[in-house]
Amino acid sequence: MTEKGTFDILVLNGRPASGKSEIIDYLKHCDLADRKQRFHIGEFEEIDDFPILWTWFEEDDLLQKMGYPRLHSDQDGYFTERYLWHLLIQCMCFDYHKRIDRIPDYHKSTTTIIEFSRGSEHGGYREAYQYLTTEVVQRTALLYLDVPFSESLRKNRKRFNPDRPDSILEHGLSDEKLECLYKDVDWHELTSQDPANIMIQGVKVPYVIFENEDDVTTERGEALGDRLEQRLGLLWKRWQQKHQA
Description:
Largest sheet: 6 strands, mixed
Strand content: 15-25%
CATH superfamily: P-loop containing nucleotide triphosphate hydrolases
Low-confidence stretches: 166-170
Mean pLDDT: 93
Structural class: alpha/beta
């Protein structure tokens, strides 16, 4: 897994509007050779649970207009069942496994980036990680974008474009919903015992924290590149230590 110099799976976690999608957008515009050297990411494909979630909401609205019951959410846009958060994780893993099953030696050239947020209100990362498949867990390195709730709230308000509510980079939540779902997170509790690795399903998974309270991601500039290079460089060392042990 380490000889090729790039991650197999990079999981991006953090509160909404913490900078996850902005990092992915930045990486898309990097030269491939530079991206491999600086960030240990080759050709990459992203899997984000937001498009799945948004499709469910659209289907529910259509069903309601047709006079049928909504399947996933109530009229205020909250899930009717907590397990639907876990289904999103399973859907992303299912998407990943379709790719590796259909493309021989998929990870020789490709890094998969999986992006999602989880708040304590709906089980947090503690529950979400239990629904990752075994192979995803074994191949994963974690990058957590750390911002306080106040910064998540500020950027969520700033980025929201009412004309593009389904956009990865321009969607947003109401203040009330953001506070309900994401004010409390369990990340620091889960990682308090080890500054380098988190145990997921009995597997030691390397992680690093990307501090982004000062918001270096919005501008997609040199400051972002430098910090990302430093953080992913450290994560790569931890990834190597795990797979060469």
